[in-house]
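Good morning N.,

You mentioned wanting to compare the apo and holo forms, so I went ahead and generated the holo version with AFP. This is what I fed in:
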Amino acid sequence: MKFEQTLLDFLMRHQEKHNRTFHFLVLMDAIVSAAKRIELYYRTGALKDNLGLAGSTNVQGEEVMKMDDIAHEIVLHYLKSTERVIQVVSEEVEEIIDVNKGGGRYFVYFDPLDGSSNVAHGLPVGFMFGIAKKNLDGSMQGSEDYHLRAGNEYIAAGMFVIPTGMFTLALRDAGCWRFHMDETSTFVKPVRMLLPDVEKKWELSYNAGNTETFGKNIQKWIAENQSKYVFRYLGALAGDFHRLLANGGMFMYPAIVNHPDPKKNRPQGKLRLMYEANVVAFMCREAGGDALDESGTPILDIKPKTHHQRTALYVGSKKLIDSVQKALKA
Ligand code: AFP
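and this is what came out, ligand included:
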């Protein structure tokens, strides 16, 4: 009889190999439990009437679906239960949430249900998260912005594409891994993800309807390059990035600077730095790729000023990111 590897077994070996503690296993166990629970609600959402609007707006001023509230509560519950999380930032809540004032070692930044325009259709959404750890030497502790870590300080980042059972996790300096979960979400088939060099498979992923609102240099780059690549766009970052990691290419959400209604411009970009852009940038770096903002700054180098900060994002295969960087700086 052949037994499959479990996710915790995979992580245990990883921690041992890198001489790390098992606290991280407890945290990951909670995150996987939360993902399973969200997936269950999502699958049964229509039956349980969980997919309608909750009638409120979130901190980004967007309508909150009931499912977003549920997913947030689920993640918070499981993170609290670990007693190892200091604070969390959730897309659904304005404030930073103190989880364990007395102790703990991790900060978790998450979007429990990213891509909410897909919810009403039962199409894939993402549960995205980044994890940073307190400085065990005590430095920075007590400082007000201790939780505001740049992506290059994260120790791990990952995303579940719900409800597909696909999970991708990047561990700092130890690779980006994709897990194909079975129906119990327990047994996995880990696959090391490396962006492929074969350009004929590369894809471009962006909201093409926004093209005329982008900066002129990016519009020019698109006009000169887009016909070389296949175009794909789901409207949920986790799903779009999932494809990209396997096929290569670039996902972008440029700054909106030429909207006919100037009030709708988004010079800072749309995506959230700490739980969207950093998460994919971190995974992409471990898979051999790169990520930039509109000024050409590496996403992972941006030191956040606020926990819900937005950014423009260009993420994917190095060659394309280098080419976009030249265009941004031209
Ligand atoms: P929503 O959760 O508001 O749908 O936003 C999803 C998202 O942050 C990201 O997952 C998508 O890639 C991007 O926004 C889609 O944005 P557009 O609908 O403007 O294309």
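The chain is about 30% helix and 25% strand.

Happy to go through it together on a call whenever suits you.

Best,
F.
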